[in-house]
Design brief:
Layout lengths: L1 H13 L7 H5 L4 E3 L13 H7 L6 H11 L6 E3 L4 H9 L23 H16 L5 H8 L1 H7 L15 E4 L20 E6 L2 E5 L2 E2 L12
Antiparallel strand pairs: 1-2, 3-4, 4-5, 5-6
Helix pairs in contact: 6-7
Organism: marine sediment metagenome
GO molecular function: hydrolase activity, acting on carbon-nitrogen (but not peptide) bonds, in linear amides
InterPro entries: Amidohydro_3, D-aminoacylase_insert_dom_sf, Metal-dep_hydrolase_composite, Metal_Hydrolase
Length: 220
């Protein structure tokens, strides 16, 4: 309704909206559509680009509401609100873990998900460890393995030790790097030779073996 639209717009503009106000935080150009299954033409475009293409950017909120109705509210988004200095500050803390904040996918999937889906850990090892030497290799690996495993209370995981579950990644520290980009995110990283999950090889010489030994940990 008109009243609902006005209420949402008012809360967004004034910053009184309960919860996350991404339009105020990132702006119309800082919100990019990741996946829109019903309207593929919008994937990879910012809200500003979409509204300008529709000649609706003069009244962006009204254009946005109509666009949401057009796609039936079915879309994912990538939001540009991070600051590199903040990332480094948090990363340098001995208490911080490195996570992807994402989900499992594959090149056969659709849309344009955030590049972190494919490249989080290789990016840290390639950019922040090898190239910039911001983190030591040992500290980076700790932040990816034993530290989060300990925080989550995962039993017999997180370190290489006799009797523990063998979850191991074998990579080349001189070659590892992420390849995923915002425009072409469905790309596996370089430099990962082997991946072992629960003692079984799932990646061999950089290729998937087809083995699926992973399992859900319901009680840690």
């Amino acid at each position: 309704s008109k009243e609902t639209r006005e209420a949402i717009k008012k809360e967004s503009v004034e910053g009184t909206m309960k919860g996350e106000n991404w339009i105020k935080a990132a702006g119309w150009n800082g919100i990019v559509i990741g996946e829109c299954s019903s309207k593929k033409q919008y994937e990879g475009k910012s809200l500003e680009e979409i509204l300008k293409e529709q000649n609706r950017f003069d009244e962006p909120y009204e254009g946005f509401f109509d666009w949401l109705l057009e796609i039936e509210g079915n879309a994912t988004m990538v939001i540009f609100v991070m600051d590199e200095n903040d990332v480094r500050t948090v990363m340098s803390s001995p208490l911080s873990s490195i996570i992807s904040d994402s989900w499992a996918t594959a090149p056969s999937a659709g849309g344009k998900p955030h590049p972190r889906v494919y490249g989080t850990f290789p990016r840290v090892l390639g950019k922040y460890v090898r190239e910039e030497k911001f983190l030591t290799l040992q500290d980076a690996i700790r932040k990816m393995t034993s530290l989060p495993a300990g925080k989550l209370g995962l039993q017999d995981r997180g370190i290489i030790k006799e009797g523990f579950w063998a979850d191991i990644v074998v990579f080349d520290p001189d070659r590892i790097k992420d390849k995923a980009t915002y425009s072409d995110p469905h790309q596996y990283p370089e430099g990962i030779n082997y991946v072992i999950v629960n003692g079984q090889v799932v990646v061999e010489n950089g290729r998937l073996t087809g083995a699926r030994p992973g399992r859900v940990l319901r009680r840690c």
